Description:
The complex is a heterodimer. Chain A is α+β, with helices and mostly antiparallel strands. Chain A is 21% helix and 36% strand. Chain B has 13 helices and two strands; from the N terminus they run ααααββααααααααα.
Amino acid sequence: xxxxxxxxxxxxxxxxxxxxxxxxxxxxxxxxxxxxxxxxxxxxxxxxxxxxxxxxxxxxxxxxxxxxxxxxxxxxxxxxxxxxxxxxxxxxxxxxxxxxxxxxxxxxxxxxxxxxxxxxxxxxxxxxxxxxxxxxxxxxxxxxxxxxxxxxxxxxxxxxxxxxxxxxxxxxxxxxxxxxxxxxxxxxxxxxxxxxxxxxxxxxxxxxxxxxxxxxxxxxxxxxxxxxxxxxxxxxxxxxxxxxxxxxxxxxxxxxxxxxxxxxxxxxxxxxxxxxxxxxxxxxxxxxxxxxxxxxxxxxxxxxxxxxxxxxxxxxxxxxxxxxxxxxxxxxxxxxxxxxxxxxxxxxxxxxxxxxxxxxxxxxxxxxxxxxxxxxxxxxxxxxxxxxxxxxxxxxxxxxxxxxxxxxxxxxxxxxxxxxxxxxxxxxxxxxxxxxxxxxxxxxxxxxxxxxxxxxxxxxxxxxxxxxxxxxxxxxxxxxxxxxxxxxxxxxxxxxxxxxxxxxxxxxxxxxxxxxxxxxxxxxxxxxxxxxxxxxxxx
Amino acid sequence: xxxxxxxxxxxxxxxxxxxxxxxxxxxxxxxxxxxxxxxxxxxxxxxxxxxxxxxxxxxxxxxxxxxxxxxxxxxxxxxxxxxxxxxxxxxxxxxxxxxxxxxxxxxxxxxxxxxxxxxxxxxxxxxxxxxxxxxxxxxxxxxxxxxxxxxxxxxxxxxxxxxxxxxxxxxxxxxxxxxxxxxxxxxxxxxxxxxxxxxxxxxxxxxxxxxxxxxxxxxxxxxxxxxxxxxxxxxxxxxxxxxxxxxxxxxxxxxxxxxxxxxxxxxxxxxxxxxxxxxxxxxxxxxxxxxxxxxxxxxxxxxxxxxxxxxxxxxxxxxxxxxxxxxxxxxxxxxxxxxxxxxxxxxxxxxxxxxxxxxxxxxxxxxxxxxxxxxxxxxxxxxxxxxxxxxxxxxxxxxxxxxxxxxxxx
Lengths: 539, 410
């Protein structure tokens, strides 16, 4: 039996990027021998200026930045720009770069110092997102100037057809004066028509910008059906409406799509990896999540290095009792582990990806005073990560929008000892940040907020076609064949003491946020849920 | 109009013959030199954007453009203040009033144009922040800038022609007037760059574009400047400015500073070779000379105390038809084969510059040496009729404006 249970599409015009409403790129990694932290603030219009700041963790001689457009490559790049040391700082550099075309760019950051030089590739999306109207001050200034020009134009027209026609020294007759006035009236009509024509032209350009230049999320629909008693989620991109923007994808952490489901009210969360069934259609088996309306965020990276988040929503029904028992066993908790994945692979018609994980209603985190057996330091948030594991947010205090910071987390085993952290899809951790109203969404890692696949693309060039084909067929596993594995290895080798990781990020807007932090330990994928309120930047 | 156009033609040539050695005011030279900053600065700026890409408000090209507005505006502002507060009655008599001030009409038109240019700056800045830096010439803020430049140019023309008419002298004033019109031709050509590339010259639209401003300016130069070959001098001025820039700009090394760079250039990119406007300009001058000669002969054959014969009211309409037909047919006859030459290997040199005008962000390819829109917008009778209509209106306005400028003394 096959029944279509829900169909819904969402075409919200949110300020979107590889994330939603969170366009800035944060990266913390090594440029050769030098550990650095790079922040790229892409422009809101194209062409526009990207702001780049580079903080080296040790004294260096020179920092340079180079924009690389995906289509032109490094041979199509201008000479690099030298970043300037920020006044009063010893190791903080800043630069500006023009991004001239919409699409995928990378900013190559090169550090030179006593230990030689090294380069770090930072993928950046270049796209127009600006919809701000003209400020009041600007409008008043331009209106005043336009008024003076209009009145001046009338006066000049009057002079051309009146006084200027006379021989020097001759006084204007009544007829001359009336001719001048008639010319002024005619000029008023002509100038008004010119203003009207200019206004219409401006409207045309604005419409053209909104329709053709302004970034819009690709139209996506999502539906849930039941097949062999399993709930299957289908995501379909409307390629006809995508105006040629739907191009083949490249795998990120070995997956073509990272799908995040957030239940309305944020009480359940899943991180799944759909399989591409056709060019535009993806399918994934659903774990037994609580029924309800879910917001879907699907991170994909195109073959040109452009990464984006597709958004949709879907009504998910209650799973059958048999399925719940199969997925959860006798446990009340959602246990996402290699063992569970292997068991499901043998028992299900459509088994989940071994890296799929989910989390259900294990409640908001609590503050440290209530759990002071775990930590003596005030101002921490502690989340129950299931199985007796505790996840601690070490610095949740006074979050301010647009303040570049590191969100630090610690994972403790049931005995209170720091847990050994294993790579989860090549990363020591994954975090998903969402503002409660859905206007901000970001998928971040300890090395930053960018797409690893895009970084690999800009380091190695396009991946071999068979890799993409394998991934499209669903045969590519997390640790298999991904050209980014060497990069992942470098990320995981450098970062994190046992039981502790951090994420470089700045909340882009004030508001109430919930975020989910995922780490893997002893074969289990553990998810902690945290809440915070971000206040506006003080000006 | 009180005087007939035939009479004006005779007046023009009679005054040319009686040349005087009156000094041309330095302010006239300065005004024309200031105006010349505009087309030269624009060509330099287009080259900068095509070769280097990245710029600031203070690039030399931008400063030159600003000088094109500032020099005439300051010069004329001082003239207005002097005329209002300190001048002799003679100078006040040769001025017009404007909101309580007095000054020559050209002064006010130029000041208005400079204000429009100033207005375009905050508008353009906002436009860049709202829609992105525009990589095209024609946009609303640029149209305001262009309108301002055009007004500055018209103001300078009014000033120069009024000076010519008051001085009642001949060739030197006339030459300066024709030069000023030539600078205006170059200014219009700058704004029409995107529509007049050699690759577009086999498409119908090209002939409509060139038939809009150029007949007006060439006919104006022929009628109003008191020099024998006004249109030819104006067209030659335009072509000299362009060929000068073609020869000079590539002497300076340059490197693109924006990505993507598809076309690695190592020098300042020159403009495309100018239109051969000199050909229709010569024809317009010959027609004008022939008509003037006929009128003079008719005047000489008239008895001494008999009033000069008045020309029919429709004479300038017929003349506009003739100028339009001559302009369009000669442009077609010349540009059609010449554009094929410009896209051929034979034009691949420093002088003709072939496809050397393409910017660093254009992907090199065979398309650079092919005609565009050949299939989409072919030459059709309707297309050419529209171009002729434009040329006719343009020539008629040029005759009207020329007649006005020939009599204009304030």
